[in-house]
Amino acid sequence: MKLDYLFVGAHPDDCEIFAGGTILNLKNQGARVGILDLTRGEAGTFGDSQTRKQELDKASQLLGLDYRETLDFPDGRLEDTAQARDRVITILRATKPEVIFTFPSICRHPDHEAVHYIVRKSAYLCGLKPRQSETTNQQRRESMDQQRRETTDQQRRPCGLVEFIEFYPVEKPSFVIDVTDYYEQKKALVKCFSTQVLTDEKAEVSAAHTTFIRSSAFWDNFEGRLKWFGSLIGVRYGEGFMTAQPLRVENPISHFKKRFR
Ligand SMILES: [Zn+2]
To answer: CA torsion, points 149, 151, 156, 161, in degrees to nearest 10?
Structure first.
């Protein structure tokens, strides 16, 4: 399997909340897109791993994903370990994404921070030779042949790593993707996770049955963020992202002309 984009989150609703409009946009452009969740989300205040799996399947169908895998690392106790990196490296070698989207290094949720380090290190390490213990003799012979065919290790690494903007504020995004045409679809997508968010955006919920994302304040935040990111590029709704490296611009005039339409 060969993916163009792989989105990696900690919990089954992360990629939909922070990049759902972008995934819909990329799929509409014909890209091959996958999502990897590192936990089943079983530690959430509401919902268990079974109900969260049903919600995830519904959201995956709406997205029309080419690949989705949910690993079973412990929700709430996700750590950047060699074991976690080895699992992710195996998946990166199998799915060969060109660009990975994942969390930044500073987040509100500790699991989200752990995902950042696991993914960033794995994206680099997957360009190194597989360790002997990871392969059988047959695989070793095939892997040596394959390595000869590939000219450099660099070519097997994803060419870009992009960070979501989580709940902590950032000075400004590195780039914004126009998701105006996908706003309602993104809302429907996030509402698939009905144990986590309110499907009635204005519903009043008692303190015993609420969390930040299971409140009307979440929907205010949802709309406000997309409107603010959109306003930065002159569109109605956008999703903002960060990159550690500056983006290369080929033609400054066409780049800036696109800013307001
Ligand atoms: Zn999460």
So the answer is: -160
Q: Tokens for 33, please give them.
A: 């897109």
Any idea which residue has 């997309």 for tokens? 226
Is pTM beyond 0.90? Reply is: no
| 42-57 residue pLDDT tens | 887 787 878 889 999 9
41: CA distance to ligand 1 center in Å?
8
Pair 159, 100: CB distance under 8 Å = no
Task: Give pLDDT tens digits for 235-249.
Answer: 999 999 999 999 999
Q: Are strands 175-178 and 5-9 parallel, antiparallel or unpaired?
A: unpaired
CA of 10 to the centre of ligand 1 (A): 5
Of the candidates 122, 96, 90, 99, the one whose C-alpha atom is nearest the C-alpha of residue 5 is 99
Report which DSSP code applies to 12: T
Distance 135 CA to ligand 1 centre (A): 33
Give the orientation angle of helix 14-28 with respect to helix 49-63, to 10 degrees. Answer: 20
User: How many other β-carbons are positioned within 10 Å of the β-carbon of residue 36?
Assistant: 24
Where do the structural domains in the chain lie, given as residue ranges?
Answer: 5-257
**For residue 242, what are the β-bridge partners?**
163
Rounded to the nearest angstrom, the distance between the alpha carbon of 131 and the centre of ligand 1 is 31
Pairwise CA distance, residues 23 & 119, whole Å? 19
CATH class of 5-257: alpha beta
Question: Chain centroid to CA 98: how far?
Answer: 14
Structure tokens at 144: 């040596």
